[in-house]
Every structure is written in structure tokens, then in C-alpha cells.
Amino acid sequence: MVERDRFLSVLTHIVLIVGILVVAFPVYLTFIASTHTTQDVVQVPMPLVPGSSMMDNYRAAIFGERTGGGSHAPVGRMMAVSLFMALAITVGKISISLLSAFAIVYFRFPMRMTFFWLIFITLMLPVEVRILPTYKVVSDLGLLNSYAGLTVPLIASATATFLYRQFFLTVPEELAEAARMDGAGPLRFFKDVLLPLSATSTAALFVIQFIYGWNQYLWPLLVTTEENMYPVVMGIKRMISGGDAQIEWNVVMATAILAMIPPALVVMLMQKWFVKGLVDTEK
Amino acid sequence: MAAIQLQDVVKKYGKGKHELQVIHGVNAQVGDGEFVVIVGPSGCGKSTLLRMVAGLEEITGGQIQIGGRVVNDVEPAERDIAMVFQNYALYPHMTVFDNMAYGLKIKKMPVEEIRMRVDKAAGILELGHLLERTPRQLSGGQRQRVAMGRAIVRAPQVFLFDEPLSNLDAKLRAQTRIEIQKLHRELGITSLFVTHDQVEAMTLAQRMMVMNAGNMEQFGTPEEVYHSPASTFVASFIGSPPMNLLKNAPGGREGAILGIRPEHIDVGTDGWAVKVETVELLGAERLIYGRLGDEQMIIRVEEGGLSPEPDSIIHARPREDRLHWFDAASGKRV
Fold first, then answer.
1. B185 CB-contact burial (10 Å; exposed 0-12 / middle 13-18 / buried 19+)
2. Which domain holds residue A150?
3. How many domains does the structure of chain B reveal?
4. Pairing relation of β-strands B35-39 and B190-195?
5. How far is B79 from chain A (nearest CA, A)?
6. Which of A174, B31, B101, B248 would you call most buried, defined as having the most Cβ atoms within 10 angstroms of its Cβ?
7. Which of A182, A194, A202 to substitute to test the interface with B, most B CBs within 10 Å?
8. pLDDT in tens, B274-329
9. Which residue of chain B has the CA closest to A173?
10. What radius of gyration do chain B's Cα atoms show?
11. Same domain for B216 and B315?
12. Domain holding B293: CATH number?
């Protein structure tokens, strides 16, 4: 630690406070905009204190009861789609990664390292790079506008596989041998020993992957054309492209606030586990 | 309970050019209910040998029998053995009870029987009050006892110990050694115990197998190994301080090495002239490090005995009946 210095602590606090303001102000503005009527929001300057139409705006957003331009899909439905998508991607990624890491670490099969490197190389390829061929495949399989089309292409995950591999490598080899002496087969060992031991890593991954799934934008934009399959993050975008009709910014902002709540909740509720999973190397 | 028979047991790693042989044909017979210690320096293949008996390493050549049954291709769980690992290998997320019960649960043993067996083992090892704790909440000695408990509840034909005491402090180690001896007396189960510590080997073993570089150098009772070591390796490995091995001692023979233990040399007025280099006091006794000609030698005397100054000359006489002779070329006893 550096020594305590009044000037330094004032300076660090100023930096921190400015940083927080820079991050928080847009969120605050979004919230304020979501509490005014359409007319008030587009005034210059924009009001900076909460207005009185909060309830109306949120109701309009959630149930899709509005008149302005853009998509009129109810946000309630979008949230449900988003939630399902995020959960499916998270659960799918975690289960597939656990199994592939288990195979790579604990089994000796031909081309084991080749497979590992193949998985590892895909780390460098984000969804966007392979988006056209993936779209072609999904479309040929007739999966456009379906939950499968939304989630399956995003499930394969090098990051999670790699993380689990690293964790499994820290589990002492004697543990696997002890389980073998106890008569536990590979799957039994996986279920009874490895799964409970990787609980904290899984919790950390759950948070990361849930947010990843929830924030998907480009992919849903491509594979969904029907309003009842819009996830909320891209639904916001659909509300804005309104042609000549006036955009109801207040409702759009209410939707944005709604879209922020679930990931924030997940982070807050799982924070303790999340930190533990990233810091602890439980042994 | 069962006897263990090792026949020409060979272990090789790798293939072709990268082939590395670590066990060179070990033959040994461990009797029913016997406590045998395998001892040797690190890298001598003692753990590999044990792991082959356990079934954790494949047997490249030869045959291992447990209770008259060839177990070369039998899964570890079906060999009717139990093993205590060096770092105990307790399941960190399970309670002590679950750790001990896990193997029995997999065998689908009735719950009451599991309860009974675990309680009995916990009673023997004084673990009764710890059954609901997890390994993290236990001290090193307690973890060690849980690891033994996990072996006991299975009521196996053979116990295998892979350096189970090396993570304990000196005091606890001595105490656990006595407990293991007591346990073996009560249960009478055939045991193989691997260690690199010759004190542990001498005190625990009914018979000990001294290994060096993948070969079995000697297999006998601690007395035999101490009093008539089969080779210069055994002579220098067993006993502390090690036996003096002298090529050019006065009265020596051509092509032979003379061995004499430090405790079998009397210091007097005539005999070998030894130049003293350093003297160490170890409490009850004193070690005199010196030179006989150009060869290093150690003499052990009682604490009350003489304490020569460095660089002085003392006269030492080896006891005639305690001399050992080894062939200089092969190192074998002659």
C-alpha cells in the first residue's frame, strides 16, 4: 500500500466519482426518459427529473399497447423469449463444456490433443466471423424463427471447455484413483466427485454465459423475422426503425430499463458465488 | 486375507526408442497376514510396484497373484484390496462418513450394514466425533486416520499404503506408526507399505523389501537386512548413519570392500589411525567424522565417551565379528 496522503485520497475519489458519473448518467437518463410522455421526452433540453407517466409507459411497453412507429410486439413476450434463450444457451454451454472437458482430461483416446486444439482454436472465432455459413445451415434446417435456431448455434463454447479443463487439471490425480479403487466408474466419478467440486466454477460461468446469452443481438436479428420470436435486446432496435411515424422514445427507454433488470439481478444474486468461482482454486 | 505373489514383474513405459524400463523382474512372495515394507530411495520403482499390485498401473510383464488369483487384468475395485494414498485423496466435498461409505454405497451394500461398518472403523480409529465434518475441517493426522478408515471399512484381503506418513510431522509420524502396528495386530490383514524412510521400514516391517533402480536388492526381516546386508547399496541405505564402506582399509582384501557399521567400532589406544574432521553430538551419542587414509568414515560413540578435537588422531578398532565383505565389482555380499 502507498502511504496515506490527503491529496492522493482526494484525487482518487474524484477519479472514482467521475468514473461512476460517466457510467451511471446514461442509465439515469434512460430511466428519466422512461417516466415522461412522448412529447416531453423529445423537448430540448430533455427533463432531468422523473415525470409522472412511468406506469403508463411500462404498461405500454410490457403489453405492447401503443400507437407510434416501429414494432408493437409486447415486451413481456420478448422478455420471456430472452429469458428462455439465455437459460438455454447457459445450460447448454455448461453441460457440453463439462462433458468435453471431462473427456479431454480423463480419457486417453486417439487424437485427443487434436480435438483439444480444434476446440481451443474456435476461441479465436467469434460468432460474427462464422455468421453467414451458420445462417445458411440454420436456414436450410428450417430453424429460422425457432428457439432451436436461436440457441443451438451459440451453445458450442471453447471458453467454458477451456475453463473446466484447467479446473479438472488441478483436481489431484489420486482422487480419480481413489474413486477407481472404490469401484466408481467414469460417469459415477464425474457425477459424484467432479460435478460437486466444480460447483463454484459453474456458478461463475452461469453468470457470464447468462449475460452473454441475454445480450445476443446480431444473431437473433438474422434468424428471427416474426415478432413473437424477438428477444428483448433486438426488440428495442425494431421499435426504433419506424419510418415516418413518431418514435415513442419513452416506451423504448422503458423497454431498455426492463431489459437491464434480469442480468443485473443474476449478477447481484450470484455475486458471492461468482467471485468465489473466479478467485478460489478449491482443493 | 490372502498371500501376494509377484512373478518376474516388469514395468516399461513408452514404446520403441522411448522405452523406459522401471521395474526389472521382481520375484517375491508375501505371506498371508504379513506386514511387508517396500523401501528404497525415490525413483527406485517402489511406488510403481505398489500401484501395479493395486491395479492403477498396467503390468507390462510377469504375473501378480492375490490370494492365488492372477489379477493382471482385474479392475482395482475387484481385486479386494484397499489403498491409503500419500496425500490421502479424500473427497473434499463429502463428510468423513460419506468418504468412508462411498465405496460401500457403490457396492450397493444395505444402509444399516454401511452404518455399522463405518461406526466400527470410526471406533477403532477414534473418529466417532468427526463423522459429520468435511476433510477441510480436519488436521493432518485426522485426515490420515480417515484415509485408513476408508480402507478398513471395505474389509479387504490386502492393505496397500503409499507413503501414508510422509505428510505428518515427526511426532505424529511416530505415533501413527505405532497405531498402524496395533491395527495390523488386531486385523491381521496382509499389508504392503511403501516408504523411503528406513526408520519407518525397520520399525514397521515383519519383512522388508529393499529396492534400488527397479531391482529388488534384498527381501528379509529387518534383523537380516541390518546384520547381513546383501549388497553395498543395502548396507549404505539401511542404518543411520550409514555403514562405512572401505576399499583400502588396513587388512583389507584385494577386490573386496570392507563394511563396518559406525556403532561397531571401538575407540582405543591401538588399531586404525583415524584423523578426526568434525564431531556431532546427537544427545545420547556422538558421531565422529574422520578420514582413514583417503577414505571418509564415521564412528559412533556413547555420549559419555571421548570427544576428540578436530585434526587430532584417534585409534579405532572394528569388532572382528561385525565385519562385512562385499565384492568390489558387483557390490554383492561375499
1. exposed
2. 75-279
3. 2
4. parallel
5. 9
6. B101
7. A182
8. 889 998 888 888 899 999 888 889 999 887 777 788 888 888 888 888 889 898 88
9. B89
10. 23
11. no
12. 2.40.50.140
Max CA separation in chain A (angstroms): 75
Q: Where are the alpha helices (DSSP H) in B188-272?
A: 198-204, 222-227, 232-237
The chain B residue lying nearest A199, using CA atoms, is B93
DSSP string over A107-174:
---TTHHHHHHHHHHGGG--GGGGHHHHHHHHHHTT-TTSHHHHHHHHH--HHHHHHHHHHHHHS-HH
For the domain that residue A267 is a member of, what is the CATH number? 1.10.3720.10
**A6, burial (CB in 10 Å: exposed 0-12, middle 13-18, buried 19+):** exposed
pLDDT digits (tens, 9 = 90+) for A49-105: 888 888 888 988 888 877 666 777 888 899 999 999 999 999 999 999 999 999 999
What is the complex's ipTM, to 2 decimals?
Answer: 0.81
Residue B96 to chain A, least CA–CA distance (Å): 14
User: And the C-alpha cell for B204?
Assistant: 514397521
pTM of the model: 0.79
Q: Which residues of A touch B76 (CB under 8 A)?
A: 177, 180-181
CB–CB contact B102 A174 (8 Å): no
Report the C-alpha gap between B220 and B206 in whole angstroms. 8
Whether A177 sits inside 8 A of B85 (CB atoms) is yes
Which residue has cell 521382481? B26
Cβ contacts of B87 on chain A, cutoff 8 Å: 172, 174
* Residue A64, domain member (yes or no): no
Nearest CA in chain B to A172: B89
C-alpha cell recorded at residue A181: 479403487
